[in-house]
Amino acid sequence: MTNGKAIIDAHNISKIYNADTIPVYAVNNVHLHIEEGEFTALVGPSGSGKTTLLNLIGGLDKADAGNIYINNIDITKLSAGKLIDFRLKNIGFVFQSFNLIPVLTAKENVEFIMLLQGAGKTERLQRVQQLFKEIGLEDKLNSRPAELSGGQQQRVAVARALASKPRFVLADEPTANLDSKSAANLLDIMEMLNKEEKITFLFSTHDQRVIQRARRVVTLVDGAVAEDTSNTMMNGKL
Amino acid sequence: MWLVKMAWKNIWRNRNRTLITMSSIFFAVILSVLTTSLKQGAFDNLVKNVVSFYAGYIQVHKNGYWDEQNLDNSFEASNKIENKILETPNISDVSPRLESFALASSRDLTKGCLIIGIDPTKEDKITHLKSKIVQGGYLKADDKGVLLAAGLADRLKLKLNDTIVLISQGYHGATAAGKYPIKGILKFGSPELNEKMLAMPLATAQDFFSAYGMITTYVLSIRKTKELEETAIAARSALGEEYEVMSWEEIMPDIKQHIQTDTNNMKYVSGVLYMLICFGIFGTLLMMMTERKFEMGMLVAIGMRKGKLLLLFLLESVFTVFIGCLLGIVASIPVVHYFNKRPLRFGGSTAEAFARFGFEPVFPTSTDAANFINQGVIVLIIGLVLSLYPAYVILRLDPVSAMKR
Ligand SMILES: Nc1ncnc2c1ncn2[C@@H]1O[C@H](COP(=O)(O)OP(=O)(O)OP(=O)(O)O)[C@@H](O)[C@H]1O
Ligand SMILES: [Mg+2]
After folding, report:
1. Ligand 1 pocket, A46 CB below 6 A?
2. Domain boundaries, chain A
3. From the CA of B289, how many Å to the nearest CA of chain A?
4. CATH, domain range A37-59+87-236
5. pLDDT of A213-231, one tens digit each?
6. Which of A140, B53, B114, B141 is exposed most, by the fewest CB atoms within 10 A?
7. φ and ψ at B341, to 5 degrees?
8. Can you say how many angstroms the Cα of residue B286 is from the centroid of all Cα atoms in its chain?
9. Cβ neighbours of residue A238 closer than 8 Å, sequence gap 6 or more
10. What is the ipTM score, two decimals?
11. Is it the case that residue A161 has pLDDT exceeding 60?
């Protein structure tokens, strides 16, 4: 695993809240190395720093210490404006809920990212067609988010995250609001994209069934990495 | 373009809120257009009345006459001056007057009066003197008779066709005395004029005062009343130092003052109105921003530049405010025209003030297009300035805290 191509390389990163009163080490001196093609779950008890770590890696939040290399670029050195463009081009995001813009249809929500990138119409349509085929929602192209189930919304969110052809997707508890069937379905799609399109996934979760499907599990406790195990054996069986 | 479409869709995502915002802007525009048109109409009406019944829009005197109003400050009337005045742009008519004071008596009663010698035809064009006649007939240029104001006639217990005796001091100290038949009775709205005024043909007045060929005043009317000041300035420079040219605003500073005071009061009313509009719009903006905070954070998180997001929200505000304003302007046109045709009637102190100047407190609204546009633009600007608040929020937006629930 160590001879692969590094996508995420976080060195000694820390995030401290309330530094001047009672400091909370939300992320405490974390090293994290993620290579292309990984399918990794970030787990840990509530308040262990999963969201904070994902936000740091995604460039949504500023680390108080350490460096974060994404595709060999140190994002801690980027200005706020550059960081937004960087996220658009390089990182796909899936949040726990309310990922979609309510006034746009499913198709438009996915197209939105490409509009931000200034992609042409034919390119957009092609990509949209392809992505909706992959998430199995070709018949819901013109539905509004409110007309989709939670699971369908999350699948559209995955399509949206991939629209700009990022190398990896960060997902913070993408299945937290889903029933187990929808959760399994979403995981199927993520796994398929991971295998067939070599998309790297890093997602946090509480759900034991989701954890089981990860090939690597990084466990955080009190903001620090407590355990880092590979599930290669288990995945081999599947 | 897609941003415009998205903004358009966004304003309808909460239809009720948008409709409330739009209708508050809509009614605000109607209300502020109506109040300004009403006030503007009242002033226009006031000015028209005041200038048309006596003063005229502009007067020309010999320099120094206004401070010392006597016959020694009169000047010789001439076609040359009249033509010079008429050649000034925007001046439509000119009429000569010889004005001075005299004692008027009947058998045993004596009262002071204001004699104005007039050119009957020209005077009527400007001040519509003929229309003020309630008994008898109007003057002809060569008449030896006079028109007497009703109030003065009452005081002197004189009736139509009676004879009035006038005594005064004439030009260069000559004695002036004469007897004249009363050819007509005039009724003025203004109590001041009604108690004092006596009109006679110019030649008769010049003869009475031994001021042959002399006049004290040219009364002018103008076409575009808005260009009063410019016209006065033009006439002033055409006539030169020898004459003083005064607009009605200088002749009747109290009316000018009255309008000024009312305009200022009006500003407070408008100010309160605008403030209400501000709170209305701001309230819905606040609600909207809170509701969409997560979404804004999410959009920035997935890579929407803040400039674009800002533009999106700005477009939404522009659409909402613009539509409200436009509908408001469109709807206020018939409303204002209605109150132009069916004027409002005022009561109270305003009515009294107007009665003092001698006309009915009835006010048709002004249908001046500027009122619609100005008020519309003011509300539009308020709306746009307020939408700087979302802009400010967006510029400071931190996606992580915005997405925290
Ligand atoms: N804005 C903040 N201010 C202060 N403390 C914060 C802030 N955000 C997070 N924290 C603290 O940082 C720690 C890590 O929070 P984080 O949200 O990353 O945990 P998590 O592992 O995602 O939890 P969960 O499983 O409940 O989502 C917690 O102790 C939390 O209270
Ligand atoms: Mg979390």
Report:
1. yes
2. 37-59+87-236
3. 15
4. 3.40.50.300
5. 999 999 999 999 999 998 7
6. B141
7. -75, -40
8. 41
9. none
10. 0.92
11. yes
